Amino acid sequence: MQVISHIIKGQSVDNNDRYQDVFNPATGKVTGQVALASTKTVEQAIAAAKEAFPAWRATPPLKRAQIMYRFKQLLEDNKEKICALLTAEHGKVTDDAMGELARGIENVEYACGAPELLKGEHSRNVGPNIDSWSEFQPLGVVAGITPFNFPAMVPLWMYPMAIACGNTFILKPSERNPSAPRLVAELLQEAGLPDGVFNLVNGDKEAVDCLLTNPDVQAISFVGSTPIAEYIYSTGAAHGKRVQALGGAKNHAIIMPDADIDNAVNALMGAAYGSCGERCMAISVAVCIGDKIADEVVSQMKGKLAQLRVGNGMVPGQEMGPVITSQQLNRITGLISEGVEAGADLVYDGRNLQTRDDETGFFLGGCLFDNVTTDMSIYKEEIFGPVLCVVRAKSMEEGMQMINDHEYGNGTCLFTRDGEAARYFSDHIQVGMVGINVPLPVPSAYHSFGGWKRSLFGDLSAYGPDSVRFYTRRKTITQRWPSSGVREGAQFAFPS
Ligand code: NAD
Predict the structure, then answer these.
(1) For ligand 1, what atom is nearest to the CA of residue 227?
(2) How far is the CA of 227 from the centre of ligand 1 (A)?
(3) Catalytic (active site) residue 367
(4) Cα separation of 194 and 94, whole Å?
(5) What is the pLDDT of residues 147-198, one digit of tens each?
(6) Atom 24 (ligand 1) nearest CA
(7) Tens-digit pLDDT profile for residues 211-228
(8) Ligand 1 atom 38: the closest Cα is on which residue?
(9) Among the four 18, 291, 449, 473, which has the fewest Cβ within 10 Å?
(10) Secondary structure E strands in 249-393
(11) How far is CA 464 from CA 107, 460, 468, in A?
(12) Cα 171 to middle of ligand 1, angstroms
């Protein structure tokens, strides 16, 4: 059986640490084993990154960017292979995997702009014959810890920019689907990156804790669930590191009485059930303003759910694959039972899904709840599965209050034809990423991605301009070259 190992200093490394099974969620079968790095293995990776840093820091940004150009081309050339691994270990359908990779590649393209992005700020004559400038220097060894739901894209949010800024990097991807991030890492080596600039360790809490506490690691980027994000933020900060930790979500869409219902329903189908709801930007709550619109949305969604094509993502034409593990399947069905017991109407029950005989994996059909209230666990918790909750409200203000009161603030969307309502909503909603008739408002690579409230711990968002700031440290230099022969007396007043 294949073993997915680490990459340290450009070499495949397997130190006979612990191992964990890797599954194909569509068949439920074990397809490989992933090595789980011990503290010693992670220390080996940190030492390699530390050793590679001085030469990489001194490499001109243009040369670093040229490697990113080659990396982008290799990603394009190998996209079918990468996406096959994404589907085999995550379960998402091929089209969705292609979309994930394309959004990841956008971040490599952005990193190709490093020479421009690192230009700094210059002021001439801040005083008599004195010039001053700010430059952005790399931090040193930085690490990224990533979730299972975007095994290719989320790592690409982090290391292309970190490396292009002159840092060396250690990636700890999710142990649940390690093959795609490993293949992508091999392509980066092939692009000509010097050994040790990028290292990959597979692992679990033991590996993460080593990265969080080791004094040679300067900064940590994390994406995952909120309890772990909070742990990463507090532990990393307590050890003197710069930390950005992106957490979970409960994204609401408000459907106004004037919305284009057909388009809103189609958008909700994709946003709630695409990738089996395993997206931090998935819409999991639809707040319908008024009973008329709620009845219409529920009736149309029921009809479409009956047509939803669920099965192995490798088979062309499928719209939704399985969830990631049997544990996650049990957790979701447990929450569905809680919703029924709490009095919500399960108007479409995906637990009755019939899949083909050879699809013995972790399948669940799309589920739709109506008449959900804010005290129910299906409303409060991030389900991270194909479950949409319809909440009925009387006004946009009531819907906005629900969103603002929720602990998460990642994404949201308003469906309307009313520009004034849209402007008020986007101005006052307590959420980091807002869509107007755009159900998944995932920012482009040249903006930055981040939620508010308990969806992000730290000051800077992921990728885009914020990532240049996150992966560099500002230094301001003030310089004067006195003419030879000019002598000045001591100045005791503060320079002004
Ligand atoms: P997770 O928190 O279980 O795992 C994320 C990473 O943390 C993995 O690499 C894992 O190995 C590591 N980890 C897990 N438990 C740990 C522990 N006790 N100590 C140290 N490290 C630990 O998340 P997941 O299930 O892989 O991913 C799904 C979650 O990620 C969802 O909550 C989703 O909303 C969130 N997510 C957020 C964003 C965002 O941008 N805000 C994007 C994608 C996913």
Answers:
(1) 2
(2) 9
(3) no
(4) 33
(5) 999 999 999 999 999 999 999 999 999 999 999 999 999 999 999 999 999 9
(6) 147
(7) 999 999 999 999 999 999
(8) 280
(9) 291
(10) 251-255, 283-289, 345-348, 367-370, 387-393
(11) 8, 10, 7
(12) 14
Residue 449 Cα: closest atom of ligand 1: 40
The stretch 301-324 carries a mean pLDDT of: 95
The residues pairing with 224 across neighbouring beta strands, listed in sequence order, are none
Are domains 3-247+455-477 and 251-436 of this chain identical in fold?
no
Instruction: Please determine, for residue 398, whether its predicted confidence score (pLDDT) is greater than 70.
Output: yes
The string of DSSP codes covering 200-267 is E---SHHHHHHHHH-TTEEEEEEES-HHHHHHHHHHHHHTT-EEEEE----EEEEE-TTS-HHHHHHH
Mean pLDDT for 405-409 is 98
CA distances (Å), 141 to each of 10, 51, 203, 456, in order?
16, 10, 18, 22
Active-site position among 280, 288, 367, 413: 280
Rounded Cα gap, residues 411 and 404, in angstroms: 12
Task: For residues 283 and 271, give the distance between their C-alpha atoms in angstroms, rounded to a whole number.
Answer: 5
CA of 443 to the centre of ligand 1 (A): 20
Q: Which residue has the higher pLDDT, 108 or 489?
A: 108
Q: What is the pLDDT of residue 358?
A: 64
When pLDDT is cut at 50, 70 and 90, the band that residue 496 belongs to is: confident
Q: Residue 16 — very low, low, confident or very high, per pLDDT cuts 50/70/90?
A: confident
Give the domain ranges of the chain. Answer: 3-247+455-477, 251-436
Contacts of 409 (CB under 8 A, 6+ apart): 403, 430, 431, 432, 451, 452, 453, 454, 455
The average confidence (pLDDT) of the chain is: 96
The CA 38 to ligand 1 mean position distance, Å, reads 19
- Give residue 405's pLDDT: 98
pTM for this model (two decimals): 0.97
- CATH class, range 3-247+455-477: alpha beta
CA of 114 to the centre of ligand 1 (A): 29
Domain spanning 251-436 has what CATH number?
3.40.309.10
User: What does DSSP assign to residue 390?
Assistant: E
Q: Which two tokens stand for residue 384?
A: 């991270």
Q: In the structure, which protein residues have their CB atom closer than 6 angstroms to any atom of ligand 1?
A: 145-150, 154, 172, 174-175, 204-205, 208, 223-225, 228, 246-249, 280, 382, 384, 410, 451, 455
Choice between 183 and 358, residue whose per-residue pLDDT is larger: 183
Best mutation site among 153, 201, 204 for ligand 1, i.e. most ligand atoms within 8 A of its Cβ?
A: 204
Predicted confidence (pLDDT) at residue 357 exceeds the cutoff of 70: no
138 residue type, one letter: P
CA 398 to chain CA mean position, Å: 30
